[in-house]
């Protein structure tokens, strides 16, 4: 019976690879949309585990789930790669209000930025100074800032169609805002949330103190876009209003965590690797469905589709669930360092970390020769409305694997709604559309199939 089954699989494999690329890619999309597992996996990861902040119990549970799920796929090898990660905890829910000269208070919605120190036990209250950028901060100088809270209020640029470009244009105020404000004696910072949506949800995210000593670190929080507009309006009327906030976050010692890795061994080039991946950690306000649960399950789906269709890859295909992308990139660096030490060749590294929305195409960081080859495949994706094939940024987790000869790639979904949910409490399972998620996994699998068949 086993011999008969093996013979049938061999025959099916030969039939599959005798098919045209159009036919194979169609079978990939058909299988993803009718027999895919990505939505089921995301349901469990989001609703049974939840937010997965690096170093947390939920992150540990996610590692255990990831290892188990990959073993159930029947991969050739599944293992955990140890990595030390930061452990930052939010503590009790933050609280803030604006106090007018008359003594009236207006509550506003804030959340601590990841890595921030806490306020004093009784909170922090001071006058507040609004700026749009670091240049304005410098122009005001110490005399206008010392002893006050700095309010960074530069919104994402709404007329940019590429929302990631809009995000990049203002995220430095979140990441470096505390360092810059500290130079002029500020006692805290409040940062407008990185979102194009006007609502009550604050968006967290990583920040840095660089090499500031602990004694000089100031508490840092994000304020919702709606309340940022309110605060700005109140300051335009009365610059003497005060801002109060209290947060209870804490940075603890690093703890051990893991990247989760699974592999299908290549039939011709077992030591040359094509990887697909996303980051397993997330922020803690939501359940991390778009950022980056979607990328995790889409990457898993690639290997599931190869197994379901009995595609025997020439190269070894790996899925990597990276740990600690959000506040350290420790997992990506650990994976790249281990690959270097082992002398592994990564020919293609494909990342999904832009949400589970409708896929539009891919961005490629590769040689022009490779990109010219990629462009010859573009027509194969047009029936699925995957038209975006451009050179550009691939992704944070695959970045450390980049060389002068290989290709790093990012899946590019429609991004118009992504920053509505990014790092906010609304990044939840109900915000993900099943069909859009499945199309993303199928698109990744189709591209991996082509790279595996034709090389770079």
> How many strand units?
16
**Rg over C-alpha atoms, rounded to the nearest angstrom:** 24 Å
Q: What structural class do you assign from the helix and strand content? A: alpha/beta
**What's the main sheet like?**
8 strands, mixed
- Label the overall shape: elongated
* Distance from first to last alpha carbon: 39 Å
Unreliable stretches, pLDDT < 50, 5 or more residues? Answer: 4-13
Strand proportion, as a percent range, falls in: 15-25%
Mean pLDDT, all residues:
95
Total number of helices = 15
Q: Largest sheet, order of strands side by side? A: 1-10-12-11-13-16-14-15
Q: Name the helicity range.
A: 25-40%
Short description:
The protein is of the alpha/beta class. It is 38% helix and 24% strand. The chain has helices at 2-18, 21-35, 38-49, 57-72, 134-145, 163-168, 172-175, 177-182, 225-237, 289-308, 330-342, 368-375, 378-381, 418-421, 434-454; strands at 77-89, 95-99, 105-108, 110-112, 124-131, 149-152, 188-192, 220-223, 242-246, 250-264, 269-279, 315-322, 345-351, 359-365, 388-391, 407-413.
């Amino acid at each position: 019976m086993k011999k008969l089954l093996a013979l049938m699989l061999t025959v099916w494999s030969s039939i599959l690879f005798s098919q045209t690329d159009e036919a194979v890619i169609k079978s990939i999309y058909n299988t993803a949309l009718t027999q895919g597992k990505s939505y089921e996996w995301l349901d469990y990861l989001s609703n049974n585990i939840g937010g997965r902040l690096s170093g947390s119990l939920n992150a540990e549970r996610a590692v255990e789930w990831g290892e188990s799920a990959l073993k159930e796929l029947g991969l050739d090898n599944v293992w955990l790669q140890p990595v030390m990660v930061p452990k930052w905890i939010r503590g009790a829910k933050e609280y803030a209000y604006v106090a007018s000269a008359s003594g009236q208070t207006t509550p506003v919605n804030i959340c601590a930025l990841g890595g921030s120190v806490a306020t004093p036990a009784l909170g922090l209250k001071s006058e507040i100074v609004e700026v749009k950028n670091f240049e304005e901060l410098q122009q005001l100088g110490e005399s206008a800032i010392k002893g006050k809270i700095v309010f960074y209020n530069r919104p994402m640029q709404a007329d940019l169609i590429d929302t990631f470009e809009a995000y990049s244009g203002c995220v430095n105020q979140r990441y470096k805002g505390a360092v810059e404000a500290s130079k002029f004696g500020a006692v805290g910072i409040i940062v407008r949330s990185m979102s194009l949506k006007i609502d009550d949800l604050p968006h967290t995210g990583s920040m840095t103190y660089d090499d500031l000593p602990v004694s000089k670190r100031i508490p840092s929080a994000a304020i919702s876009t709606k309340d940022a507009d309110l605060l700005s309006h109140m300051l335009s009327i009365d610059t003497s209003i005060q801002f109060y906030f209290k947060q209870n976050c804490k940075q603890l010692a690093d703890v051990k965590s893991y990247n989760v890795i699974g592999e299908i061994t290549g039939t011709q080039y077992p030591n040359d690797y094509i990887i697909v991946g996303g980051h397993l950690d997330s922020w803690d306000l939501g359940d991390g469905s778009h950022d980056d649960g979607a990328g995790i399950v889409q990457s898993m789906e690639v290997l599931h589709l190869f197994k379901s269709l009995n595609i025997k890859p020439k190269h070894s295909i790996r899925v990597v669930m990276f740990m600690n992308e959000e506040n350290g990139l420790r997992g990506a660096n650990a994976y790249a360092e281990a690959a270097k030490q082992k002398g592994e060749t990564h020919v293609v590294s494909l990342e999904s970390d832009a949400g589970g929305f409708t896929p539009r195409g891919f961005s490629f960081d590769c040689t022009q020769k490779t990109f010219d080859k990629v462009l010859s495949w573009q027509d194969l994706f047009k029936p699925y409305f995957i038209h975006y094939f451009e050179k550009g940024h691939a992704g944070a987790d695959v970045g450390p694997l980049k060389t002068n000869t290989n290709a790093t790639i990012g899946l590019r979904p429609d991004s118009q709604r992504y920053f509505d949910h990014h790092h906010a409490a609304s990044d939840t399972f109900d915000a993900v559309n099943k069909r859009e998620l499945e199309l993303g996994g199928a698109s990744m699998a189709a591209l991996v199939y082509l790279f595996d068949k034709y090389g770079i």
